[in-house]
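name: query_chain
kind: protein
chains: 1
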Amino acid sequence: MVAVVVLVAAAAIGVVLRDVRQASAAGGTDPATSTTAAVAASQQPGAKTVVFVADAAAHPDAARVRVLLQNYFDAINQGNYQLWSSTVLAQRTRDTNKNDFLTQYRSTVDTSIVVHRLEAWPGGGLLALISFTSVQDPADAPPDLRVRCLRWRVSYPLVTEAGQLRIGMASPNTSLREPC
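structure:
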């Protein structure tokens, strides 16, 4: 099962990278098809609204995924632990209490959020392939990359828990980041 997850994650990252390169080459100015790579560092932070590329927007679950992800990123941007905890699996809220959340995201602003693809997840649910930009105090950035602005490409598993769609834990192997 682990091998399947790693293979799916690797394929997912490849798809996001392909979409980023294609949108960058095309100029990527339409919000529905733009990526964080198309937004100059001088224009960061960008819009805080979650947008979908055409393929992802056509997915039957796009509307509920959009609401979930918008709430997730709004919660981070507003430092709203209660809203954040309503978007993630219960295990994540047990692992991250309110003080940890507030410390982890105290200076973070996530913008230029693009959903590139929604795929079936092998264990049930969906895999959302997303790119976004985070701007934060360098002291709050990941320990191995202490910079003000990061471009992220992440695969989030989306699963149903207690009848609600929730965001699972992204594997470190499915998260790519680079300075803006």
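note: The two ends are 35 Å apart (CA to CA).
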